[in-house]
Structures are given as structure tokens and as C-alpha cells.
Specification:
The structure holds 2 protein chains of 2 kinds.
Chain A (H helix, E strand, L loop, with lengths): L6 H11 L4 H9 L1 H6 L1 H4 L1 H24 L9 H11 L17 E5 L1 H11 L10 E5 L1
Antiparallel strand pairs in A: 1-2
Chain B lengths: L3 H8 L11 H7 L10 H17 L8 H17 L7 H18 L8 H27 L1
Helix pairs in contact in B: 4-5
The chains are: A mainly alpha, B mainly alpha.
Chain lengths: ~140, ~140
């Protein structure tokens, strides 16, 4: 639990987790082969770990929704997305099941941007910048 | 490019708003699907669907107020229980925001001290930090 964090400790934790130094970012995004070769030092391992844990989380949610899905009673966004995938017959649509045969949806929200900017907005209760990022793997 | 006109015109032109996937972004964001990494028709279709569905579930509407109030109440209770000790608020505000949005997306709600919610937040913070760093570097190189 992160309650009453010691600021020094927090700073230390963030430094330890930091895989975003300019050199590392340049390696990761523009020279991925070199980054993979020095995976431990370039931040590639951290990137993989970060992406993988996110995927695991979303896959679990989608799996649970798929198992309890009811066509006529969508409960939330994931259900609506699954419904759209099942309804889509147009094979050129990005919702068509063949685009991702496993029909797993990765959901990540741009809403995070809203919580990042939130301190300057004051009104976090009126978040108006939510977008979703969904994709099939 | 100088001047508002020259800076704004390209930003609203679909022809220059494409996304070039790299190995790292594909790994993080999932190839060309979704919204963040998509362009053209895929982006339009996904965005249209997302906005419509979010509104159906109350996003940006009065029906979301109860959900937000619940989060605000828990946040206020937590602050009250700290007894005037120094606290870090950034994370707590973020938890409340993420939680209310997460509920629309997945139907799940977490307590603010729930490890699952803290893990989600950690993950997302790191991811956004990386994204911001990339954009910052890209701009400084231009």
C-alpha cells in the first residue's frame, strides 16, 4: 500500500523504475535491435515487462467478459466491443473477427492522459478527454 | 513553421496525422489497431465506436455523477483519516480518476488501497512516462 509515502523513498523507487532516459528511449524506439542485444541495460526488459503485465491484465478481463457475455445485456465497454465483433460481417471492418482470430481486445485508455494533466485542470470530476485504445492481438 | 495558421493546418489534416509503427510501439500499443496507433479508416471506425459507446455508458453525462461522487467520497474519507500528516495527493487523485473510468470500461470497481488498482496505475504511469519522453525527445530533435 502506498500511503504516506516518504518522498525520498518515492523518488528512489521512481529512479529505479525509470527506463526512460533519453539514450534508452533512442535505443528502444530507433535502434530496437541494439536495445534487445543489451536488453538489461537498454530498458528493453522493462518495456517487455511493462507491456506484458498490461496484456495479461486486459486478457484476463476479456476472458472473463467472454465467458459471461450475454448478447442482449451488455454490461460495459468490453461487452459492447465483443458484441460489435460478433455482429460485424464486413470483412474489411477493423471489428471483423478475422482481423484478430482470437478476438482478444486490448483496452488501454488514453484516459491516463487525463489523470496526468489532471493537476492543471482541477476538475477531475469532469473528465472530458477519455479515449480508448482497443486492439486485437 | 511559424504562425498559428501554419501550425494548426497540418494538425487537422488527416494526411499528416498517420502513425508510423516501430517495433517498440507495436509491442506496447498493439500494432496498427486501436486508437493511439491507428490511422485512416481504422482510426475513424474505432474512434466513432468508442465515443458512442462511452456516451451510452454515461461518460460525460449526468448519469456519471453518482460514480464520480462515490470516488470523491472515498478520497475525502481517506484524507480525513490521515489526521493532518503529510500525504502525497497526486497518486490518490489519479486512483480516483482511473477507478471511475475503469468502471465504465470493465464494470469493475476497486477500493483505493486495492493492490490490483495500484498495479494498474503503476503500469500506466510507466507507460505514459515513456510515451512523454519519446514525444519530448522527438520535439527537441526537430
Amino acid at each position: 500500500m502506498l500511503i504516506q509515502l516518504n518522498f525520498n523513498q518515492l523518488r528512489t523507487q521512481r529512479l529505479l523504475l525509470d527506463f526512460t532516459s533519453p539514450i534508452k528511449v533512442a535505443l528502444l524506439f530507433f535502434y530496437p535491435k541494439i536495445a534487445k542485444f543489451f536488453s538489461k541495460y537498454s530498458g528493453w526488459d522493462d518495456l517487455v515487462m511493462s507491456a506484458q503485465s498490461k496484456r495479461d491484465l486486459f486478457e484476463r478481463i476479456i476472458q472473463e467478459h467472454s465467458e459471461t457475455f450475454q448478447e442482449d445485456n451488455p454490461r460495459d465497454f468490453v461487452d459492447m466491443y465483443l458484441q460489435e465483433v460478433r455482429r460485424t460481417r464486413n470483412k474489411f471492418s477493423s471489428f471483423h473477427a478475422t482481423v484478430g482470430s482470437s478476438c482478444k481486445i486490448l483496452i488501454l485508455s488514453k484516459f491516463l492522459r487525463s489523470f496526468l494533466n489532471f493537476h492543471t485542470r482541477r476538475e477531475f470530476l469532469t473528465i472530458c478527454n477519455v479515449g480508448l485504445f482497443c486492439c486485437w492481438v | 513553421m511559424c504562425g498559428e495558421l501554419w501550425q494548426c493546418t497540418p494538425l487537422i489534416d488527416a494526411a499528416v496525422s498517420g502513425r508510423k509503427p516501430t517495433e517498440a510501439t507495436s509491442f506496447l500499443l498493439g500494432d496498427e489497431f486501436g486508437i493511439l496507433q491507428a490511422s485512416g479508416d481504422v482510426w475513424l471506425e474505432q474512434r466513432r465506436f468508442s465515443m458512442k459507446t462511452l456516451r451510452d455508458f454515461g461518460f460525460g453525462r449526468a448519469s456519471m455523477e453518482d460514480m464520480i461522487l462515490e470516488e470523491a467520497r472515498e478520497l475525502c474519507d481517506w484524507i480525513r483519516n490521515q489526521g493532518g500528516a503529510p500525504i502525497e495527493l497526486n497518486r490518490r487523485f489519479s486512483l480516483a480518476v482511473v477507478n471511475s473510468l475503469w468502471r465504465i470500461l470493465t464494470g469493475e470497481r476497486y477500493e483505493h488501497d486495492d493492490k490490483a488498482l495500484l498495479d494498474i496505475l503503476d503500469n500506466l504511469e510507466r507507460w505514459i512516462k515513456l510515451q512523454l519522453k519519446v514525444f519530448k525527445n522527438s520535439h527537441s530533435e526537430c
